[in-house]
Write a structure and sequence with these properties.
- Belongs to the methyltransferase superfamily. RsmI family.
- Keywords: Cytoplasm, Methyltransferase, rRNA processing, S-adenosyl-L-methionine, Transferase.
- This is Ribosomal RNA small subunit methyltransferase I.
- With about 325 residues, the protein is α/β, with parallel strands linked by helices.
- It is built from twelve helices and ten strands.
- The longest helix has 15 residues, at about 265-280.
- The chain is elongated, with a radius of gyration of 23 Å.
């Protein structure tokens, strides 16, 4: 829910009309509109203009959206709001398609952020496009790119590497069942690129314990992004449960997490792998990794990820 701190958006609405009013907004179009993830000021002028212009606003939660609109000074009667959420998206999409066929302009908003990114909206957009009608995106706030922009995603152990360390994979919410979640984490251990995760407060500690097996690989946690109590911290995966346990307030709010990239580069990486394989035949993982790093100079966290893959038979041998 966006922060509803007292503010006047009258000037913003006027600016939205001046800045975006002269643009073309075709009829029979679905406008996918990003809304703030916390701070009400993180709304675009074009979004404000479109939310006033469209015939209908389809939304994840009509009550939430009505509150958001009123905070901006936009008065839309309840009859102009259409509920489209995860439980009815397929059916509601057909009603949207029918309205678009009649030439209506319809905006779609989720409760916060960009629709279709771990929020409803993807099925709606697919149905509209399948019907041959236009989907027009209005970019804006997203917890995914917000955290990535602040995480400093440089491959662990190296200031430069052979692959693009700014590349990332969006995994969203991992499975809630422990066994399925652990399997998903093992898959993450084999992914050298950065991985962005989302999690709810009641499951964040369970996720932290599951991610701890990734050892020294860095994780940046974004809690309550853009809100009053925003917190961003980078810690080793193995220490993530302790980080949450150190302050109970850290388990409150909404979470985005990014698992930093890893890379083995140059001759040191090849030598590190050779030494590691020899040591793993005789020693426990942690000891083998420590010695292999000291002998070869390869990054310890990278060797740890490789050791997990070798021990789990995931490296193709």
């Amino acid at each position: 829910m966006a922060s509803l701190a007292p503010a006047s958006f009258g000037a913003a609405l006027a600016a939205a009309h001046d800045a975006a009013g002269a643009q073309h907004y075709p009829q029979g179009t679905l406008y996918v509109v990003a809304t703030p993830i916390g701070n009400l000021a993180d709304i675009t002028l074009r979004a404000l203009h479109v939310l006033q212009l469209v015939d209908v606003i389809a939304c994840e939660d009509t009550r939430h959206t009505q509150t958001l609109l009123r905070a901006y000074g936009i008065d839309r009667p309840g009859a102009r709001l259409l509920a489209v959420h995860q439980h009815n998206e397929a059916e509601a999409a057909q009603a949207v398609v029918a309205r678009l066929a009649q030439g209506e302009r319809i905006a779609y908003v989720s409760d916060a952020g960009t629709p279709g990114v771990s929020d409803p909206g993807a099925r709606l957009a697919a149905a509209v496009r399948a019907a041959g009608q236009r989907v027009l995106p209005l970019p804006g706030a997203s917890s995914v790119v917000t955290l990535v922009s602040a995480a400093g995603l440089v491959a662990d152990g190296s200031e430069s590497n052979t692959h693009n360390s700014s590349a990332f994979v969006f995994a969203g919410f991992l499975p809630s069942k422990a066994g399925e979640r652990d399997t998903a984490v093992q898959a993450l251990a084999q992914e050298p690129r950065a991985v962005v995760l989302l999690e709810a407060p009641h499951r964040i500690e369970s996720l932290a314990r599951a991610l701890a097996v990734l050892g020294e690989r860095r994780i940046t946690v974004g809690r309550e992004l853009t809100k009053q109590f925003e917190e961003i911290a980078t810690v080793a995966a193995s220490t993530l449960p302790d980080w949450f346990g150190a302050d109970r307030d850290r388990t409150r709010g909404e979470f985005a997490l990014v698992l930093h990239p890893v890379a083995v580069s140059g001759d040191g990486g090849a030598e590190g792998e050779r030494v590691l394989r020899l040591l793993l035949a005789e020693l426990p993982v942690k000891t083998a990794v420590k010695l292999a790093a000291e002998i070869s100079g390869a990054p310890r966290n990278t060797l740890y990820e490789l050791a997990l893959r070798i021990r789990n038979g995931a490296d193709g041998e």
